[in-house]
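Dissemination and training. As part of the outreach component of the grant, students in the summer workshop were shown how a complex can be specified as a set of sequence lines and then modelled as a single object. The example used during the hands-on session is reproduced here so that future cohorts can follow it. Participants entered these lines:
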Amino acid sequence: MDFLGDGLRRAFALLGSADAEVYGIALLTLKVGCVATILACAAGIPVGYTLATKRFWGRRAALTVVNTALAFPTVVVGLLLYGLLSRRGPLGGLQWLYTWQAIVLGDVILAFPIAAALSAAAVQGVDPRVRRTAETLGAGPWRAAWTVAREARFALAAVITAAFGQTVAEVGAAMIVGGNIRGATRTLTTAVALYTAQGDFGLALALGIVLLIVALLVNVALQVLQGRGHA
Amino acid sequence: MLELRGVRHDYDGRTVLELDAFALKPGMLTAVVGPNGSGKSTLLRLLALLERPTAGAILLDGAVVADPRRRPSTRERRRVTLVEQRPMLLRGTVRDNIAYGLRARGRSATAAATAAAAAADRLGCAGLLDRRRHELSEGEVQRVAIARALAIEPDVLLLDEPASAADRAAAQTLYRTLAEERARRPLAVCLASHQLEDAYRWSDDLRALADGRLSPVTPENLFRVDLPPAGADGMTHAPVGPLAIAVIAERTGPAILAVPPTDIFVSRAPLASSARNVFSGLVTRVARHRPGTVHVTADFGVELVATVTQEAARELGLAPGVPVTFAFKASAVQVF
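and obtained this result:
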């Protein structure tokens, strides 16, 4: 159990020493997490809203697909993306393999079903009279959607939090398509995996604690934003 | 102005509304009355262009705006508005709510807030402008919802049980405001109500709905029943609340019973007669109907309405709380 205490001591020492490499890894993790969360939510929340509010052929099938995609193994996504992004793959021309953009792409694919499925559930939880009221008062589709989203803001904030949690905690795809290159694509999770494999449990635990602190800061920021709303 | 033609509407394969023709005219108040589940709310949702009919068409100024394939545009929807039976206020203050429709139409925040204050004033809710939905009573929410609907100056205003949460005084204020609004501009109003007195007093046209169809009879004394099999003489007793109403019926199972108010004999005590239905209760309301006649409502465990002349009402001393007997023949009861 000594390594736990050692890990904690080293975590705070690392944070206090302003280690450039650790801050670089933390900042890259934050950047990848934020960009991937914004993209996944920008695509997933409208899809969730549509699944929750519109009646169209294939809606149930689409919901099932989205819910199933929640259980998509991250390494499988990494493997598929590796095939697509490798030099001979259909997206090889982008030259994204082993770049932070590739990690973002993998995270977006993994976080999109979370954003879509949970926002569909969030919107379904809103009193149907809200959308009817907006429509009877002459709101167009966008204003009606915005009105419903305002009513579901707490649940939608939880959707964003969950999507962000997925993107910063993901390791399988990031390892395969990012390559865990020091100073370029090493994120907190891939670094933890590396140092654990090398037997440096203390440093791995220290980076794990940094990851938790990053997640905590983002959640606090979201809470503050939510706190501005009233009933 | 707003018209349904050959409209049928199904939910889960069950027909809940079937109307050959139904039209709302500018400046007129149409009341739709009928028992719960008769299709009133479905009718209003179709008129509000919120749903497309399963069959038939909805026309606005003679042009089809909704049918099974055509979805109305936002511009078309903006000419009609609906206040639901249990209206919902959106997030924000009462002022934000009343201004919502105006903001949706591109009015500036200042202009919308000014118009919202004026609309609130007309409905007597100017003092509520800065409150939020959880700070309002049910009746206040209903008033705000009507102010919110009037603020957008629709061509057609649809109201589902608009006075259900209001006391008598508030209901009268509401109907007076609607009358003033219609005097000011050619607003078509359609309201679904179970308050027959109000419907008679304030509407220009009264329609009764029963089982999703326009009823061929007057809207009083309509009951949804489950008819037991008739005896050899063709007579059966339909349970209506605590009453067993004797009817001549050739059918069994779910049906609508109608007791025409003009076919009810009213007396202070039971009389020997051929009437198979004789019920004693207390008068709850006496209201003027058409010139020379009054509607007498009495409670027998369920309410029944009878039409008598003003002279008869005076002679019998009919007033709320007075014991009364209603009698009508089994053959007078209509079954459909």
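Chain B has a mean pLDDT of 89. Students were then asked to discuss how this feature might be tested experimentally.
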